[in-house]
Amino acid sequence: MERLQKIIAQAGVASRRKSEELILQGLVKVNGETVTTLGVKVDPDRDRIEVQGKPIRLQRKRLFAFYKPRGVITSMSDPRGRRVVADYFRAIPERVFPVGRLDWDTEGLLLMTNDGELANLLMHPRYEVEKCYHATVQGHPDDAALERLRRGIRLEDGWTAPANVRRIRREKGLTVLEIIIHEGRNRLVRRMCKAVGHPVRHLIRTRFAFVTLEGLSPGTFRELSREERERLRRSFKQSSK
User: Fold this and answer.
1) Can you list the domains of the chain with their CATH numbers?
2) What is the DSSP letter of 126?
3) Catalytically active residues, by annotation
4) What is the torsional sign of CA 60, 75, 28, 53?
5) Which end of the chain is more exposed for a tag (fewer CB within 10 A), N or C?
6) DSSP alpha helix (H) spans, 29-183
7) Which region holds residue 57: left if phi is over 0, alpha if psi is between -120 and 50, else beta?
8) For helices 143-151 and 188-195, what crossing angle results, to 10°?
């Protein structure tokens, strides 16, 4: 027996938090009866579960590392018909969704999964999952600017957490920085760099936790192995001790 919201998330319908909202909104039925309280336990092999009138089926859990190209929206659909990340996974029978997001003008590593529980853990601020970016910024930041980034920047929505920052190389009028953060705020790396006077000209995420872009080119993906998925889960258990 498992909690209802966990089963809904495992079926790839929505994240755990969104599944709870669906229950509270009266959009979930178990064996024909509407459930509106959290904590109800069900047997997915015996109970009939419906979300918004549609029966759910447990899917094989899958997790992909995807190289999102620049100019692609991190969404499952777009009313304006623009290209979205879901377009690259049409041949996958399971409905996989993005873990977090990358901006339209940012490229790089994006995890895609149908495991709502794992996605929730990966995005939860408690676990401080590292995300590594290579930011090509305007000009040549001096040591004082880099130290500000390392210690934290005061933005309109509060102070940033300390970041790991190092120069990778200098080019004509530009500098490539490696910036490692664990926050998930909107356009954070771009806003941090702008705050120290060096706007981002190009941004790519190269790593999420220990998963990297190795072997991938824009628009391609690979499925993570069972060992990699278990390594992720073990890291959460260690963090919670």
Assistant:
1) 2-55 (3.10.290.10), 63-125+211-235 (3.30.70.580), 130-208 (3.30.70.1560)
2) G
3) 103
4) negative
5) C
6) 116-123, 143-151
7) beta
8) 140
Going residue by residue through the chain, which has 241 residues, state the pLDDT in tens, using 9 for 90 and above.
788 998 888 787 888 889 999 999 999 999 999 999 998 999 877 889 999 999 987 777 899 999 999 999 999 999 999 999 999 999 998 889 999 999 999 999 999 998 888 888 899 888 889 999 999 999 999 999 999 999 999 999 999 999 999 999 999 999 999 999 999 899 999 999 999 999 999 999 999 999 999 999 999 999 999 899 888 888 775 555 5
Query: Both tokens of residue 240?
Result: 């919670």
Residue 153 three-state SS = coil
The model carries a pTM of 0.78
